[in-house]
């Protein structure tokens, strides 16, 4: 499958997945509220298995397993023995991790949210008992999905989460039908906890089961194999060791952020609002960066494995320019439509304005993170997980320091408690900018030149086109009434308003790129047509 076709397939699936994911979150906010104690308790509990999933998927699998499975494909058996041993080991580790984490649920909740009151911590713990078994199914989903990606079977991994979202939406609607909407923490019963958290876990189980139906397309025959020697698992252990430490550092930094935000009182933008702002932030990242970048990573791994450094340098520049054209437009559109977008996940104008501040602070790092996606995975393609650990460790230190500084500022009255989540988000973005600068410099040294000037010139050209586009979008928002207009009066109208503003930004952006005669525009339009329904 070509890069263009693979990107289109992943992009189309990701768009539908993210749209249904947005609907899932809208229904969840409707059920539990955006700034309630119950909503924050569920957000913390449901985030726990996701944090483990981040270690497995973003860390070990993306960094290590894809390149190793690509190499194992050259074995006489097509890599079946290697994958059998890998999957057996992975399943054992996942089962053990899920069991230990579930038993440790009360301590995990206190660790992540020490400033919650006793009732809220008890509620979060009850949710966690239902949610933490997701670790097993998240891990299996990531393991099988990355193996499919390594064999250029991209579709199922992207499309399976749609079923999860549908199951969750149905379950949350049942919750609302049975128990009502906007439930407060003092009203929770065991049946309510089981329906809400059980629905979240059931969606992950179904999502994982569907993925297994597509395994035959890999052409590998996998069976349980507890003899974990002889096919390079030691090499994976050495590579994964650094990656594990890197992601662990990121998770510890996230714990500090969570503990800081647990100070935020009910009614102000807190953990749940920050999580929803991150979801909006990740929407363009997932649709654009992952859909285009994932096929490039497989190709880049092949070129690096063959020692074709010139091709790797070309891959890096080409992917950054392609990603940049789309991600700059997305950044401009989200920035000017931040309030209507935030209204989708809140229950009032005031909550939307507060949540928009958190989103804007996250958006500072959207373009740098797109560049980092390519740079970091280039290190992985060369089996170098040690270097990413060190530049990510620096980022984590900055995240911790800025979160603690934000906590001090809120406690000292320098900023209001309602601004604490936004301050934490801004610190996260600043750390990411520092990280991408360090990572690019280190990769430049390793490959002896990345032709940085060529893709930085392209990013500058995109930014130049984005300025008038953002201005047009902001003017549109003001003409529609601004924060007092109809785009912020209701969730569905927030969707419509954000869409109108986004279309204006996109049209002006493309027009200015055409005036600037950006050479990347033609290829990008071809790729976009493939992603759209009916495209080829």
From TrEMBL:
Q: Which InterPro entries match?
A: Lipid_II_flippase_MurJ/MviN, MurJ
* Cellular compartment(s): Cell membrane
Enumerate the transmembrane spans: 21-45, 51-74, 86-110, 122-145, 157-180, 192-215, 236-257, 277-298, 319-340, 352-375, 387-408, 420-443, 455-480, 492-516
Q: Which UniProt keywords apply?
A: Cell membrane, Cell shape, Membrane, Peptidoglycan synthesis, Transmembrane, Transmembrane helix
How is this protein situated with respect to the membrane?
A: Multi-pass membrane protein
Classify the main location: membrane
* Name of this protein: Murein biosynthesis integral membrane protein MurJ
Source organism of this protein record: Microbacterium gallinarum
């Amino acid at each position: 499958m070509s890069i263009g076709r693979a990107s289109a397939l992943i992009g189309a699936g990701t768009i539908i997945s993210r749209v249904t994911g947005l609907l899932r979150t809208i229904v969840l906010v409707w059920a539990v509220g955006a700034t309630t104690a119950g909503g924050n308790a569920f957000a913390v509990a449901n985030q726990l298995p996701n944090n483990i999933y981040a270690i497995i998927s973003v860390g070990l699998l993306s960094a290590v397993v894809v390149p190793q499975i690509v190499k194992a494909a050259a074995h006489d058996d097509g890599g079946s023995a290697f994958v059998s041993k890998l999957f057996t080991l992975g399943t054992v580790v996942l089962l053990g991790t899920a069991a230990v984490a579930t038993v440790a649920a009360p301590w995990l909740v206190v660790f992540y949210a020490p400033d919650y009151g006793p009732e809220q911590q008890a509620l979060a713990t009850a949710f966690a008992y239902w949610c933490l078994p997701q670790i097993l199914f998240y891990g299996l989903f990531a393991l099988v999905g990355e193996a499919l990606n390594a064999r250029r079977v991209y579709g199922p991994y992207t499309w399976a989460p749609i079923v999860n979202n549908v199951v969750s939406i149905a379950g949350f609607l049942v919750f609302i039908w049975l128990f009502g909407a906007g439930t407060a923490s003092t009203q929770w019963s065991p049946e309510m906890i089981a329906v809400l958290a059980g629905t979240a876990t059931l969606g992950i189980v179904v999502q994982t089961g569907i993925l297994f139906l597509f395994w035959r397309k890999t052409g590998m025959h996998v069976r349980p194999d507890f003899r974990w020697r002889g096919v390079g698992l030691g090499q994976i252990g050495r590579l994964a060791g650094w990656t594990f430490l890197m992601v662990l550092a990121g998770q510890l930094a996230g714990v500090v952020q969570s503990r800081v935000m647990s100070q935020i009182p009910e009614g102000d933008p807190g953990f749940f609002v920050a999580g929803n702002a991150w979801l909006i932030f990740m929407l363009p990242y997932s649709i654009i960066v992952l859909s285009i970048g994932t096929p490039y990573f497989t190709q880049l791994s092949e070129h690096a494995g063959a020692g074709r450094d010139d091709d790797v340098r070309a891959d890096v520049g080409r992917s950054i320019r392609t990603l940049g054209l789309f991600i700059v437009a997305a950044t401009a559109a989200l920035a000017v439509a931040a309030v209507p977008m935030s209204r989708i996940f809140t229950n009032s104008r005031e909550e939307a304005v507060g949540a928009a501040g958190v989103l804007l602070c996250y958006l500072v790092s959207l373009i740098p993170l797109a560049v980092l996606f390519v740079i970091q995975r280039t290190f992985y393609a060369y089996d170098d997980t040690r270097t990413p650990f060190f530049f990510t460790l620096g980022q984590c230190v900055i995240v911790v320091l800025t979160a603690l500084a934000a906590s001090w500022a809120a406690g000292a009255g320098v900023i209001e408690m309602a601004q604490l989540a936004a301050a934490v988000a801004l610190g996260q973005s600043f750390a990411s900018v520092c990280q991408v600068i360090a990572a690019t410099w280190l990769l430049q040294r390793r490959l002896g030149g990345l032709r940085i000037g060529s893709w930085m010139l392209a990013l500058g050209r995109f930014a130049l086109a984005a300025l008038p586009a953002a201005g047009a979008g902001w003017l549109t928002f003001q003409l529609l009434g601004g924060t007092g207009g109809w785009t912020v009066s209701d969730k569905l109208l927030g969707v419509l308003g954000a869409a109108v503003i986004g279309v204006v930004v996109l049209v002006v952006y493309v027009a200015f790129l055409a005036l600037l005669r950006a050479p990347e525009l033609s290829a990008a339009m071809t790729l976009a047509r493939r992603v759209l329904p009916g495209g080829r």
